[in-house]
Design goal:
The longest helix is centred in the middle third of the chain and has 21 residues. With about 425 residues, the chain is of the alpha+beta class. The strands form four sheets. Strands 1, 2, 3, 4, 5, 12, 13, 14, 15 and 16 form a ten-stranded mixed sheet that branches. A two-stranded antiparallel sheet has the order 6-7. The protein has a two-stranded antiparallel sheet with strand order 8-9.
Length: about 425
């Protein structure tokens, strides 16, 4: 484990406001909104209530793992459509499932370093619009057909076409597969389950709890950060639409394993493939005072960690642990913790790892880390019920933590995600008053 001083010795960075769209579950066809559309909707609702105009931002940073072919540097497209103007620079970041958190970290660092005062940061993803690609065989055939100049050569090449060339490559599945260890994300969850003895019933129980907590959260109105989406057909999307009020252990038990024939990871105890966007406004103390901005929280620390890609789901353990050590905190000191629910097995695995002496030794600890009160962990459900548009999830978690600290008058929150490729990311927030 790396021994470092606090990562933010510069200026304090504040989260002053935020907004997100509902997360819409992918169904049988591409969703009604592009990634840029989603982001503009979230951003517009957020900016309309600010005391400054959009052109006062110093920059815009957006996380997006898979923008469409029409959305190169999607951050710039979003910034222009939001009215930030030609003079406000924007850039896109990609760190798989933590792209939204990376955007916030990049934006916060620029403020901490004194290069910016006010930054719009977040993430967006339209996973339902992930493209179908030509196979390599089809691409080679098309290339040879293009190269053939004379008609006889073109005919000769055309006759080499085979129907199997048309079998599409599903970009989403490729993106969710680690090419180094040759495992898809579901298989890495199976590996975590195997290492910590997590059975199917425990996974399904966790998944059902996610839906129940999210449903209760909706009923209590805790997702006030959501701004509605309006489809061109007049449909209004007001809430996350993947939450199942009728989720039961019996129904979950009937689902077949998706990734391994004799495995335990199913569609029911995995995160939902979704479309959505989330943004926060980050500001320096000078910007807060100048515009008389309210403050939700301050960013205390951020950590990025690496680990074996085959057990990437344990990334939050590797990211949260050093943050707590640097700030002389224990798990019990965190009032609200969000660990993104990529898979039920993965979150359960994180909790078990903190109580496992051998694993904690790998983290450089002399004793076990302990455990967190489960009532403080994902108290309003997580990606299994709400959805996981990979570019947006990190920003959603940060925003929800900040909102809940304000609502409940609590002091500290941690948001964390596992990351395909064997990484983990985490952020520590504190509530502040009277800036």
């Amino acid at each position: 484990m790396q021994n470092r001083i606090n990562q933010r010795p510069g200026r304090v960075v504040y989260v002053v406001d935020g907004a997100r769209t509902p997360f819409l579950k992918m169904r049988a066809e591409p969703g009604p909104f592009s990634a840029a559309d989603l982001a503009v909707t979230a951003g517009k609702a957020l900016l309309m209530r600010q005391p400054f105009s959009p052109d006062k931002f110093d920059q815009v940073v957006v996380g997006c793992a898979g923008p469409s072919e029409e959305e190169a540097n999607i951050a710039r497209i979003i910034a222009l459509r939001l009215g930030c103007g030609n003079a406000v620079p924007a850039f896109t970041v990609q760190r798989n499932c933590a792209s939204g958190l990376q955007a916030i970290d990049s934006a916060a660092q620029s403020i901490s370093d004194g290069r910016c005062e006010l930054v719009l940061a977040g993430g967006t993803e339209a996973m339902s619009r992930a493209p179908l690609l030509y196979s390599k065989a089809m691409v080679r055939w098309l290339a040879k057909l293009q190269q053939a100049k004379a008609l006889p050569n073109k005919m000769k090449t055309a006759l080499k076409f085979r129907p199997q060339f048309l079998v599409p490559v599903i970009a989403l599945l490729k993106g969710l597969t680690d090419p180094v260890v040759n495992l898809n994300m579901g298989q890495t969850a199976e590996e975590v389950a195997y290492r910590f003895g997590i059975d199917r019933q425990a996974m399904d129980q966790f998944a059902m709890q996610s839906h129940l907590r999210a449903m209760q959260g909706q009923a209590m109105g805790v997702f006030e950060e959501i701004t509605p989406l309006y489809g061109i057909d007049g449909t209004v999307y007001e809430q996350d639409d993947g939450i199942r009020a009728d989720s039961t252990l019996e129904k979950l038990a009937k689902l077949r394993p998706v990734f391994e024939k004799h495995g335990s990871v199913t569609a029911g105890n995995s995160s939902q493939i979704s479309d959505g966007a989330a943004f926060v406004i980050l500001a320096s103390e000078d910007a807060v005072k100048h515009y008389k901005l309210p403050v939700l929280a301050k960013i205390v620390d951020v950590e990025w960690a690496g680990l074996d890609p085959a057990i990437m789901g344990l990334g939050p353990v590797h990211a949260i642990t050093p943050i707590l050590q640097r700030n002389q905190l224990a798990l019990k000191d965190i009032d609200h913790m969000e660990i993104n629910e990529a898979f039920a097995a993965q979150v359960i695995g994180c909790l078990k790892a903190w109580k496992d002496e051998a694993y904690c030794q790998q983290l450089g600890l002399n004793t076990v880390m302990g455990e967190i009160d489960v009532e403080r962990l994902n108290p309003h459900g997580g990606a299994i019920a709400i959805g996981h548009p990979v570019g947006a999830s990190g920003a959603r978690l940060v925003l929800h933590c900040a909102k809940m600290m304000e609502k409940n008058k609590t002091q500290r929150a941690v948001a964390s995600l596992c990351i395909g490729g064997g990484q983990g990311g985490a952020i520590l927030l504190e509530r502040v008053t009277g800036v």
